[in-house]
TrEMBL record, chain A:
This is Pyruvate dehydrogenase E1 component subunit beta. GO terms for biological process: pyruvate decarboxylation to acetyl-CoA. PANTHER family: DEHYDROGENASE RELATED, PYRUVATE DEHYDROGENASE E1 COMPONENT SUBUNIT BETA, MITOCHONDRIAL. The lineage of its organism: Bacteria, Pseudomonadati, Pseudomonadota, Alphaproteobacteria, Rhodobacterales. Heterodimer of an alpha and a beta chain. Residues 2-78 form the Lipoyl-binding domain. The pyruvate dehydrogenase complex catalyzes the overall conversion of pyruvate to acetyl-CoA and CO(2). It contains multiple copies of three enzymatic components: pyruvate dehydrogenase (E1), dihydrolipoamide acetyltransferase (E2) and lipoamide dehydrogenase (E3). The pyruvate dehydrogenase complex catalyzes the overall conversion of pyruvate to acetyl-CoA and CO2. Pfam families: Biotin_lipoyl (PF00364), Transket_pyr (PF02779), Transketolase_C (PF02780). One of its GO terms (molecular function) is pyruvate dehydrogenase (acetyl-transferring) activity.
From TrEMBL, chain B:
It catalyses: N(6)-[(R)-lipoyl]-L-lysyl-[protein] + pyruvate + H(+) = N(6)-[(R)-S(8)-acetyldihydrolipoyl]-L-lysyl-[protein] + CO2. It comes from Celeribacter baekdonensis B30. GO terms for biological process: pyruvate decarboxylation to acetyl-CoA. GO terms for molecular function: pyruvate dehydrogenase (acetyl-transferring) activity. Keywords: Oxidoreductase, Pyruvate, Thiamine pyrophosphate. It comes from the Bacteria. Heterodimer of an alpha and a beta chain. It holds the Pfam family E1_dh. Its EC number is 1.2.4.1. InterPro entries: DH_E1, PDH_E1_Alpha_Subunit, Pyrv_DH_E1_asu_subgrp-y, THDP-binding. It is an enzyme of class 1 (oxidoreductase). The gene is pdhA. This is Pyruvate dehydrogenase E1 component subunit alpha. The keyword Oxidoreductase applies.
Length: 457, 341
């Protein structure tokens, strides 16, 4: 009996991958445990093992094929003596990859299969007519760091698995090759220690970029982020500080449970002496990372694992930077202001699209930086729309939304026609079960409901 | 890899010039008199908060500094007044920081525990026990990265030595051959907890062996022994051989900070140390018995130092409090980005 082998999901957030290499050919005998293929995800290249025994009847996807969706049949295993010549993939998953299989792309090109999310930004950060290219957030981050490292010898990258492994989330892919082990430094798993060492190196005149594998683990090191990096300039009467970047994925990924799924935006935004960045689009990741590396202060740069693989349009410029403290209006509207940042923007924009169909016009603002915060843009918008909903993924108590809402009350109270509603993650540790996880996160439906509440529809 | 106990020559026989001896004597005496004055000012309410005196431990920092050269860096805990004086910072600026005045090294915004001098490569003054250890290794990292042969002295206590981040730092310092000297000032107590009650490991310097770091134990009441050990340690680091650990056995005469119940050790214990092991008395006696100085010479030195310390106290009283606008400066190295909403 023929058995279909399906494209495996090799990481919690993997939706598709590249079939980098077949290690068997048609007609080979396969036993369970044999490595039959190498599959490249956006995180790493991994080996795919056979579970069943049999003869490799047919390879359905050519090696080098990108964007192979999880669960697509990639090969057919047959029993001895069975004829494989006229087998073809069954099942519904044929759509995506099988078509591309005929013309395998070179394996080096990073997967940018998904269509880019196009900004309807009213006020772009680059001159009109600038050439644009499609890039994932991952590539934008790598380019930003590499450009700054070429520009300034005192910039270096330190963290767990940043060098030889090419980055736990592949952000620093290729950087060891270009910059060498002096500047791309693998550390032992000792967040507290290496955050302190990097901060000391910043005191000593270097410009470290510290990668936390995720910000969940930065809790082990938070003493140095706050007590050492953020406060020293003040405590030294301006004599010395820590010009450096602490970066890494923040917030929920997918199905990794409570200890790996927390958003720290509000925690760090609380601290004077830190700057805090939490971008959404690849262009913002690039321009803001370059600004962060040049900033003379400690910058907390909160990334998102789910956004890493998303494509956006990024301006093609020699030196593209975006100043801190400038929000971006993604979409103009008249009935309500939706304020968000980071992955929250996904829900904010989706909600705005759906609301438009119902005749509700939402203005969507991406704060981009949480310290400094561009209050002026928010207030001006609320004065126009008279209503506001904030959207974020973190816990609701002491959230960024709470803070924004208090500022709106103080600065635009008379303009408000409804209370400001904060849409946030639910007030629970992140559950593992798929259905509960979905419920725990902020959703587009939450945002739509909140907008209807403030617009009394 | 070899680790060993210090085999230094006793102070009386060490090969040291008269000028050196006099310099150590003056440096230690300045620290002692300065600290006594700080204690007085605290009692008068001019110094607030926590104030940790260094009295009894003077030979540690003076001996270590004896092998330092321009560009070397130092970093320590909140018990930092002695370290600042020993690296040449101005007593006036230190005392005025203790009183929280504009003329202090941090414009009055840091206080006793948080003082810095970029000019003298003094990187604080840290209030979180153990934090200065990775920070110090990071300073050493910056020198190695730049390719010079400077070293960093990272001072910490016997209590701090039990912090997890110290172990983490040992490991990375050795992997990366960082030119850092870990100076454990073992004064036998962390607040009220004696070392016997906080660890069963026989030595602090010996822990380095677990990470491949060389080190030694030094008599911290003998400035010449400390100086010799510092020479070995700095030579090791400057030669690119990585970090070095010095466990310096010392003793603090005063309480942990100004408010100390003094219930965890006996008066006799303190008295015995003062009488038999005082580091300043030891040098004084070498100076006198070796005919390097007369009683009158030493009296004159004492007088000069008192004058310096008194002048620092005067300055610290007269320097104005920082302008109220200082509340909002030095938060960011560029502008203040936050509207106060
Ligand atoms: C992380 C942390 N925990 C606790 C304290 C409170 N504390 C201040 S000093 C001290 C004792 C430290 O003793 P030791 O390291 O031996 O240094 P010494 O005071 O003897 O110089 C403690 C527990 C602190 N400042 N930081
Ligand atoms: Mg102690």
């Amino acid at each position: 009996m023929a058995t279909e082998l399906l494209m495996p999901a090799l990481s919690p957030t993997m939706e598709e991958g590249t079939l980098a290499k077949w290690l068997v050919k048609e007609g080979d005998t396969v036993s369970s445990g044999d490595i039959i293929a190498e599959i490249e995800t956006d995180k790493a290249t991994m080996e795919f093992e056979a579970v069943d025994e049999g003869i490799m009847g047919k390879l359905l996807i050519a090696e080098g094929t990108e964007g192979v969706k999880v669960n697509t049949p990639i090969a057919i295993l047959v029993d001895e003596g069975e004829d494989a010549s006229n087998l073809s993939a069954s099942g519904p998953a044929e759509e995506a990859a099988a078509v591309e299989a005929a013309a395998p792309a070179p394996a080096k090109v990073p997967a940018t299969a998904a269509a880019p999310i196009v900004s309807k930004s009213v006020e772009p950060d680059y001159p009109a007519g600038t050439e644009m290219k499609q890039q994932t957030v991952r590539e934008a981050l790598r380019d930003a760091m590499s450009e700054e490292m070429r520009r300034d010898d005192s910039v270096f990258l330190m963290g767990e698995e940043v060098a030889e492994y090419q980055g736990a989330y592949k952000i620093s892919q290729g950087m060891l090759d270009e910059f060498g082990p002096k500047r791309i430094i693998d550390t032992p798993i000792t967040e507290h220690g290496f955050a302190g060492i990097a901060t000391g190196a910043a005191f000593g005149g270097l410009r470290p970029i510290v990668e936390f594998m995720t910000f969940n683990f930065a809790m082990q090191a938070i003493d140095h982020l706050i007590n050492s990096a953020a406060k020293t300039l003040y405590m030294s009467g301006g004599q010395m500080g820590a010009p450096m970047v602490f970066r890494g994925p923040n917030g929920a990924a997918a199905r990794v449970g409570a200890q790996h799924s927390q958003c720290y935006a509000a925690w760090y935004a609380h601290i004077p002496g830190l700057k805090v960045v939490m971008p959404y689009s690849a262009a913002d990741y690039k321009g803001l990372m370059k600004t962060a590396i040049r900033d003379p202060n400690p910058v907390i740069f909160l990334e998102n694992e789910i956004l890493y693989g998303k494509s956006f349009e990024v301006p093609v410029m020699d030196d593209f930077t975006i100043p801190f403290g400038k929000a971006r209006i993604w979409r103009e509207g008249t009935d309500v202001t939706i304020v968000s940042f980071g992955i929250g923007m996904t829900y904010a924009l989706e909600a705005a699209d759906k609301l438009a169909e119902e005749g509700i016009s939402a203005e969507v603002i991406d704060l981009r930086t949480l310290r400094p915060i561009d209050y002026d843009t928010v207030i001006a918008s609320v004065m126009k729309t008279n209503r506001c909903v904030t959207v974020e993924e973190g816990f609701p108590v002491g959230s960024i939304g709470n803070h924004i809402s208090s500022v709106i009350m103080q600065k635009a109270f008379d303009y408000l026609d409804a209370p400001v509603i904060t849409c946030a993650g639910k007030d629970v540790p992140m559950p593992y079960a798929a259905n509960l996880e979905k419920l725990a996160l902020v959703t587009t439906a939450d945002v739509i409901q909140a907008v209807k509440d403030v617009t009394y529809r | 890899m070899a680790t060993r106990k210090s085999a230094s020559t006793p102070a009386s026989k060490a090969n040291v010039s008269k000028d050196e001896l006099l310099a150590y004597y003056k440096d230690m005496l300045l620290i002692r008199r300065f600290e006594e004055k700080a204690g007085q000012l605290y009692g008068m309410g001019l110094i607030g908060g926590f104030c940790h005196l260094y009295i009894g431990q003077e030979a540690v920092v003076v001996g270590l500094e004896a092998a330092a050269k321009e560009g070397d860096k130092r970093i320590t805990s909140y018990r930092d007044h002695g370290h600042m004086l020993a690296c040449g910072m101005d007593p006036k600026g230190v005392m005025a920081e203790l009183t929280g005045r504009e003329g202090g090294y941090s414009k009055g915004k840091g206080g006793s525990m948080h003082m810095f001098s970029k000019e003298k490569h003094f990187y604080g003054g840290h209030g979180i026990v153990g934090a200065q250890v990775p920070l110090g290794a990071g300073l050493a990292f910056s020198d190695k990265y730049k390719g010079n042969d400077n070293v960093t002295f990272a001072y910490f206590g016997d209590g701090a030595a039990n912090q997890g981040q110290v172990a983490e730092t040992y490991n990375m310092a050795e992997i990366w051959d960082l030119p850092v000297i870990f100076v454990i000032e073992n004064n036998q107590y962390a607040m009220g907890t004696s070392t016997q009650r906080s660890t069963k490991s026989p030595s602090y310097w010996g822990r380095g062996a677990a990470y491949g770091i060389e080190g030694e134990e030094v008599d911290g009441m003998d400035v010449l022994a400390v100086k010799e050990a510092s020479e070995r340690a700095t030579a090791h680091c400057r030669a690119g051989k990585g970090p070095y650990i010095l466990e310096v056995k010392t003793y603090r005469y005063r309480g942990h900070s100004m408010s100390d119940p003094a219930k965890y050790r006996t008066r006799e214990e303190v008295q015995k140390m003062r009488e038999e092991r005082d580091p300043i008395e030891a040098v004084r006696s070498i100076l006198l018995t070796g005919n390097h100085a007369t009683e009158d010479d030493l009296k004159a030195i004492d007088k000069d130092i008192k004058a310096v310390v008194n002048a620092s106290a005067e300055f610290a009283k007269e320097s104005p409090e920082p302008a109220l606008s200082e509340l909002w400066t030095d938060i960011y190295a560029d502008e203040i980005p936050q509207h106060d909403a």
